[in-house]
TrEMBL record, chain A:
Lineage of producing organism: Eukaryota, Metazoa, Chordata, Craniata, Vertebrata
Organism (species): Macaca nemestrina
This protein's UniProt keywords: DNA-binding, Mitochondrion, Nucleus, Repeat, RNA-binding, Signal, Transcription, Transcription regulation, Transit peptide, Transport
One GO cellular component term: mitochondrion
Protein name: Leucine-rich PPR motif-containing protein, mitochondrial
UniProt GO BP: regulation of mitochondrial translation
From TrEMBL, chain B:
Primary role: RNA-binding protein that acts as a nuclear receptor corepressor. Probably acts by binding the SRA RNA, and repressing the SRA-mediated nuclear receptor coactivation. Binds the STR7 loop of SRA RNA. Also able to repress glucocorticoid (GR), androgen (AR), thyroid (TR) and VDR-mediated transactivation.
Name of the protein: SRA stem-loop-interacting RNA-binding protein, mitochondrial
SMART domains: RRM
Pfam families hit by this protein: RRM_1
């Protein structure tokens, strides 16, 4: 690369425009022009020159959870989720504060290293964070950090691509790091990475930062030879370059040159110029330029102004800061940028300027409690700002009410940073302000010393405490002082020596508690018994002390049970310890509960006897515990699997009966007879009647249930009615449901039905036009306060929507009104959706809008605004649009209105208008709304609309760019459009986005599907997932999971589309819907939706794969007729169903004994067998099976025999596999068939020398565990053992599960044939599979090898054959 | 110390009938005695626990206040928010205590 650069120098000499500097000559020269002209100004995301403040949000929310449904390996999944975690943390930080704290970055970095192989996205993410996002670090430290990350991750195996090198360059620029661009290029060349446009742009910027125009020109010349477009970013860099080279004249001239090249200077260029002036302290020119910018209708953001401020202050002209600060708009959204600047200034030791900016921040002081400015104080503490300055800042912050307790906050920071001296000084200041200093303020300091066992440090802190008049209390001693010493005695001695022990009483108390914690029970006991307590009565009573005693008792019970009785008794009896109302029962109860809770289950099991003794002892001592605690103990014991102890524990409770209810469940027939007997005996039948009705309801037997009700009406109870009503609703029987409801009310007017039953009633009544009755039910629901769940609200929606689609305006209106006014559902866009739908369906836009407005006025919601707007725009109803917009902006704010309009314009293809809207100053990203629209576009396959959305939102503030591109890729993926996907990869680079792994994965997948090279490292677990996806497909539909299906269908779609006749993903039926439909759980819905689809979409059909899956689903659900129809339809449409689907269908038919339909299928797929990989054996096997099922065993056998013995066999003999038939016959225990098949197989072997069937049969017997039968067969027909090829295949397939009979096998196989090669193959296969081989097997193998004169590759088992045979036999007997 | 205090808290939490309030967002400047002092305006505070983290010397901003009667607890709960040392804190009845305690029992292994 460097060589290339040199060779291009001659180009530079060629141009001749004498008065302009070198680089400019190039730009004015001919061929460069069209490029420059055609190129739009680059994004303003990254100010190349100064590069100080946070560029547009690099990070974005990653809250979205990964949908990993496939089993992928643990570690790779962890890496993927870890990336999201890291991204989320960093992004949250940037969002909230405009920066990343160093500790956070360090932590994410460490975690990344620890998690093993870091993905390349990880690396990119970390590298990108090392620039201006670390305002709390000095520039050199940041670059050093970046280098550390670079090297470490490379060592750990991260693969870098061009995006990483570009990111590193960006970091260099932002950190003003001096490096050699030539070396950098050489490094890239060495790593075999091609620099791209972004690389060159940034290298130019780096030359310019040092004022090296010569160097910049070289690269520029090279870019020109490569025909790369020159963008605004390059010009901005040149402005900086000339300025830093001291040539302001030429810096200014660049703007003219730009215009000549056809690029209008944008904000970036002006910003570079402004910074250049600021670095020279030229306030006049800065002001002039700012005015010029304003006039040219360009808009400088606060972020840009902050950069100018920084340039001034860093160059030593803080006096001009206030003039720039006046121009700052102080919008709230720039606060993160302001914070960033403040921190940067503090890092640069310019705290006073930082404060000036902080004070100018627009903080709402409405509630007076929200504090601001903490980050500034904290960073000042970190940067060791002198305490005088700090206290001064605190005062100021408090005065203007920016922070309510700045001093305390600063103290907190000092304590966290363990800065003892600063903390001391701050505490004094706090005290002077009149606030108390509390003991626990010192604990963090003590903790620091305690960790290092720094006695001197502890003593110092204690002295400070004394000095400030805060004597240490018990907690201080126990928690933070005593642990630092070897013993309490030495602590006492040393403290006394140093004069730190002013209050000896406190220390004594601490001593006691400390001893208790250490389990020194003797000490505690003697202390409790002694009457001269060194403690006040108050502190003994303190339950905290009781806790301590309990705590040591737990310890004690582990060793000596004796003492614990004593202490438990003491606790229980000695009034001194339990004077408070709950009394001793509770204290001991808690004690016991905690005791058991604190032991692990194995401990409890081990000490079961001991605990039992203990309980009995307590019982003898007449100790009682409350019942509820005992229940807790019971739960614990239960969970520890020692239920035997429960009764012992229950002894301690006052006897109380447990209510045990028995519920008897009987079948309906039994119930019926019972009912009759009872009736005959004239006994009460209510209960049985109810059960019977419930049983009938669950059997969906409405007729009978109603009859029964009519017969025994007088004995009906509430429960029976409820079930009946529900049953009638399910059966769409409004009449009966209503009359039942009336009877129900008559029976007990206060009785309440389940929510779902009420909803069912409402649905069925509304459907049958009994509006008033439905409303009455709703009213009753309200009156009886029926619980409303989310699902209830959803049901309401469906009821309303159904009515809306039927066009029943009145029904929708009144029901909605009733539901909402009764408060059964809160007014929401969802519930009100049908109100609009009903008019939109009728194309009555004006009323639709009115209704929407009405909704808003009544309920503060605007349902279906988007749809209304789109229709209005399409029809050009300007007045109505105006009306709608006025209304929205008045009700929901301008932002919502803008988004509504933006989406509506996009949707209707009015992109120019959409652009104007989204460029409105002050508009910011609303991720949920954007995502909503993206989803909509993807669902409807609107490529152009989505592309426009992504393009137009590029400069949108806080827009999650990665997510936008991800959505776009999703759509490309659906359409298999790799060319557009490739363009996205370049755009991502230029926009400086860290793509998430899912984005990269998706991109790679699209490129691969299009047979393209992937220009970056694909995050690893993709491979696993892909593998498992494939395998799940291979293993056919048994384990078909949703992703598998989705993938399959996607592939199928693309296949179809390439043939140019896909209507599969037309309009409303997107992939996801279809996957949902075909997934095995909802094939009934499938019919419904398909019928809609067929009526609404011209020529709607499912494609091959979808049809195949449908067949499999139908077979599984036993809809064989439908499956046959589906197959027929598919074949009629010239589709190719999958082999699996056809096989499944045939097998199912065979199990039903349906010979005819098997033939039908055979005819249908005739000629297709090879293309779908269907063996003829499938038909032979299954036809035979079907015949056997129909008890035509002889016919089946005769057919097979004929086929095998005929002179022109349909299938070659070695492929004539009957294993499936044999297995099924054995599995289904069709004994007569088994017998006849056995005879047939033997006959074939003995008379015709056809050994395949008998061997297959033999193997199936073994496989089914019928070893005896197999052995007998083997004895009758020894030739089986010679079929080594068949046997070996079987072994290899079944090696895993057949370990038990392996040795037996081995003998039959190898002793008869002495086939060493096969034996070796088998052995290797088994060891490769890690199958555990028994000694007998090894012995035999060794024997075989030795006989063949070969060496034995393992230690031969020493004992005799008989020994191992015996051993195995015993083993088998024991295990069975 | 911290462990035991937490145990105490557990004991409080388990007893659903006791008038215990769970306090969040306690400022670092306040410890149990400040909490006790503050809540005394609503009634007699029997116990007040703010567990400290022994590793840092700070508490985690959570605590429990046990009143002697339900009425007093209700007094405290009526106030929308409480301000201790200038920090708004959330206070609510520890009604979820039972469920939380049973589904995820906090276990202590006694120091050896």
């Amino acid at each position: 690369m460097a060589a290339l650069l040199r060779s291009s120098c001659w180009l530079l000499r060629a141009g001749a425009a004498p008065r302009l500097p070198l680089s400019l000559r190039l730009l004015t020269g001919g061929p460069g022009r069209p490029h420059a002209a055609s190129y739009l100004p680059a994004a303003r995301a990254g100010p190349v020159a100064g590069g100080l403040l946070s560029p547009a949000r690099l990070y974005v929310i990653a809250a979205e959870k990964k949908d990993i449904q496939e089993e992928s390996t643990f570690s790779s999944r962890r890496i993927a989720s870890h990336f999201d975690w890291a991204l989320m943390r960093l992004d949250n930080s940037v969002r909230r504060t405009g920066r990343i704290p160093k500790m956070l970055l360090q932590k994410v970095f460490d975690d990344t290293c620890r998690s093993g192989g870091p993905g390349s996205s990880h690396a990119l993410l970390l590298l990108r964070s090392c620039g201006s996002l670390l305002p709390e670090l000095k520039l050199e430290e940041r670059t050093e950090f970046a280098h550390r990350i670079w090297d470490k991750l490379q060592k750990l195996g991260a693969v870098y691509d061009v995006s990483h090198y570009n990111a590193l360059l960006k970091v260099y620029l932002q950190n003003e790091y001096k490096f050699s661009p030539t070396d950098f290029l050489a490094k890239m060349e060495e790593a075999n990475i091609q620099p791209n446009r972004v690389t060159y742009q940034r290298l130019i910027a780096s030359y310019c930062n040092t004022g090296d125009i010569e160097g910049a020109s070289k690269i520029l010349g090279f870019m020109k030879t490569k025909d790369l477009p020159v963008t605004e970013a390059v010009f901005s860099a040149l402005v900086t370059g000339h300025a830093r080279a001291g040539d302001m004249q030429n810096a200014e001239n660049i703007l003219t040159v730009m215009r000549e090249a056809g690029i209008e200077p944008g904000p970036d260029t002006y910003l570079a110029l402004l910074n250049a002036y600021a670095e020279k302290g030229d306030i006049d020119h800065v002001k002039q330029t700012l005015e010029k910018v304003e006039k040219s209708e360009l808009h400088l953001m606060d972020r840009d102004l902050f950069q100018i401020i920084f340039s001034f202050s860093k160059a030593g002209y803080p006096q001009y800061v206030s003039e720039i600060l006046e121009k700052v708009t102080c919008e709230r959204r720039y606060i993160p940028d302001a914070m960033n600047l403040i921190l940067l200034l503090v890092t640069e030791k310019l705290e006073d300027v930082a404060l000036q900016i902080l004070l100018a921040c627009p903080i709402s002081k409405e509630d007076g409690i929200s504090d601001f400015g903490g980050f500034f104080l904290r960073h000042c503490v970190t940067m060791n700002t002198p305490v005088e300055k700090l206290t001064d800042y605190c005062k100021k912050l408090k005065e203007i009410q920016m922070h309510s307790f700045p001093l305390q906050f600063t103290l907190h920071c000092a304590l966290l940073a363990k800065k003892t001296d600063l903390a001391k000084a701050l505490m004094k200041a706090v005290k002077e302000e009149g606030f108390p200093i509390r003991t626990h303020y010192f604990w963090p300091l003590l903790v620091g010393h305690q960790k290092e066992k720094n006695v001197q440090g502890i003593i110092e802190v204690l002295k400070v405490m004394q000095e400030l008049g805060v004597p240490p209390d018990q907690e201080t001693y126990i928690g933070y002082v005593i642990p630092c010493f070897n013993s309490i005695k030495s602590a006492r001695a040393i403290l006394q020596e140093n004069g730190c022990l002013s209050n000896s009483d406190t220390f004594s108390q601490a001593e006691l508690r400390s001893e208790a914690v250490n389990g020194n029970l003797d000490f505690v006991l003697s202390f409790l018994e002694s009457n001269t307590l060194p403690l006040s009565l108050q502190s003994i009573r303190s339950s905290l002390l009781l806790d301590y005693i309990c705590f040591c008792l737990l310890l004690l019970l582990q060793c000596t049970i004796f003492l614990s009785y004593q202490i438990t008794e003491l606790l229980y009896k000695d009034g001194r310890y339990c004077q408070e109302p709950p009394g001793p029962t509770e204290a001991v109860g808690y004690f016991l509960y905690n005791l058991i809770d604190s032991m692990s289950d194995s401990e409890v099991q081990a000490k079961e006897e001991r605990l039992r003794q203990y309980f009995h002892q307590l019982k003898e001592m007449n100790v009682k515990i409350p019942e509820n605690i005992c229940r807790g103990i019971r739960n614990l014991l239960d969970s520890y699997h020692v239920p035997e102890l429960i009764k012992d524990a229950y002894m301690l409770v006052d006897s109380e009966n447990l209510d045990s209810q028995k519920t008897v469940q009987l079948r309906s027939s039994e119930l019926e007879s019972r009912l009759e007997t009872l009736k005959a005996e004239d006994k009460p039948i209510r209960d049985v009647l109810k059960h019977l009705i419930l049983a009938l309801c669950s059997q969906e037997n409405m007729q009978k249930a109603l009859e029964l009700k009519a017969k025994y009406e007088s004995d009906m109870v509430i429960g029976g009615y409820a079930a009946l009503i529900n049953l009638c609703c399910r059966h769409d029987n409004a009449e009966d449901a209503l009359s039942l409801k009336e009877e129900f009310d008559r029976l007990d007017s206060s009785a309440v039905l389940d929510t779902s039953k009420y909803v069912g009633l409402v649905r069925v009544l509304a459907k049958h036009g009994r509006l008033q009755d439905a409303i009455n039910i709703l009213k009753e629901m309200k009156k009886k306060d029926v619980p409303i769940k989310d699902s209830t609200v959803l049901s309401f929606f469906h009821i309303l929507n159904g009515a809306a689609l039927r066009g029943e305006i009145e029904t929708v209106k009144q029901l909605h009104e009733a539901i909402v006014t009764l408060g059964l559902a809160k007014p929401s866009t969802n519930i009100s959706f049908p109100l609009i739908t009903v008019y939109l369906e009728k194309d009555d836009l004006s009323t639709a809008l009115d209704v929407a407005i009405d909704c808003c006025e009544k309920y503060k919601i605007l349902p279906r605004m988007h749809d209304i707007l789109c229709k209005l725009i399409e029809k050009g109803e300007t007045d109505l649009i105006q009306k709608a917009m006025d209304f929205v902006s008045q009700e929901q704010g301008e932002m919502v209105m803008l988004y509504d309009l933006f989406f509506a314009f996009l949707q209707t293809g009015n992109y120019k208008e959409a652009k104007k809207i989204i460029e409105t100053p002050g508009i910011r990203a609303r991720s949920t709304r954007l995502q909503w629209f993206c989803d909509k576009c993807i669902a409807n396959n609107q490529v152009e609309t989505l592309e426009k959305l992504v393009e137009l939102t590029q400069k949108l503030f806080e827009c999650d760019r990665d997510q936008m591109y991800y959505n776009l890729l999703k759509l490309y993926k659906m359409n298999g459009d790799w060319q557009r996907a490739d363009a996205v990869w370049n755009k991502i680079q230029e926009e400086n986005i860290v793509p998430r792994e899912k984005t990269l994965r998706l991109l790679a997948e699209i490129l691969r599907d299009g047979n393209q090279e992937v220009p970056f490292e694909v995050p690893e677990w993709y491979e696993d997932e892909k593998h498992s996806l494939n395998s799940s497909l291979d293993s056919s539909s048994d384990s078909t999971t949703e992703p598998g299906l989705q993938k399959d269908i996607l592939n199928a779609c693309q296949l179809k589309q390439s043939k140019g006749k896909s209507i599969f993903c037309s309009n409303i039926f997107n992939i996801r819907t279809v996957v949902f439909i075909i997934s095995p759980w909802c094939s009934t819905i499938y019919y419904h939706i398909r019928s809609i689809a067929e009526t609404h979409i011209k020529g709607f059909t499912l494609n091959d794969a979808a049809n195949s899956l449908l067949i499999i689903t139908q077979v599984r659900r036993d809809y064989l007729k439908e499956a046959l129809t589906t197959l027929k339809t598919a074949l009629d449409q010239q589709q190719t169903p999958s082999g699996t689907a056809v096989t499944r269908l045939i097998q199912a038919l065979a199990m039903k004994g349906d010979v005819e339909n098997i033939e039908v299928v055979q005819k249908m797929v005739n000629g297709l067998e090879d293309s779908i990989g269907l063996s003829k054996m499938v038909f032979i096997n299954n036809t035979a099976l079907a015949q056997i099922k129909n008890n035509n065993i002889d016919v089946a056998i005769e057919n097979i025999e004929n086929m095998l013995t005929s002179e022109n066999p349909v299938i070659e003999l070695q492929y004539f596999g009957l294993a499936y038939l044999f297995r099924k016959v054995i599995e289904e225990q069709l004994e007569p068939a088994v017998e006849k098949i056995s005879i047939m197989a033997e006959r074939l072997a003995n008379q015709f020398a056809i050994y395949k069937p008998v061997t297959d049969f033999f193997l199936q017997l073994v496989d089914a565990g019928k070893v005896d039968d197999a052995r007998a067969l083997l004895q009758r027909c020894g030739a089986i053992a010679e079929q080594t090829s068949i046997l070996l295949v079987f072994f290899l397939r079944n090696a895993g599960k057949q370990g038990k009979v392996l040795s037996y096998w081995f003998r039959t196989l190898f002793e008869n044939t002495k086939d060493v090669t096969s034996a070796k193959a088998l052995y290797e296969h088994l060891t490769a599979k890690n199958t555990k081989l028994d000694d007998l097997f090894l012995k035999r193998y060794a024997f075989l090898l030795k006989n063949a004169g070969e060496s034995v590759p393992f230690t031969e088992p020493p004992e005799s054959f008989e020994f191992y045979v015996q051993q195995l036999k015993e083993l088998r007997e024991n295990s069975s | 110390m911290a462990a035991s205090a937490a145990r105490g808290a557990m004991a409080l939490r388990r007893n659903i009938d006791r008038p215990v309030a769970f306090v969040r967002k306690i400022p670092w400047t306040a410890a149990s005695s400040q909490l006790k002092e503050y809540f005394a305006q609503f009634g007699h505070v029997k116990r007040c626990i703010v567990p400290f983290d022994k590793g840092t010397g700070f508490h985690r901003g959570l605590g429990w206040v046990q009143f002697s009667s339900e009425e007093e607890l209700q007094n405290a709960l009526q106030q929308e928010y409480h301000i201790i040392d200038g920090v708004k804190e959330s206070l609510f009845r520890d009604a979820n205590g039972r469920k939380a305690a049973q589904s995820q029992p906090v276990r202590f292994t006694p120091p050896k």
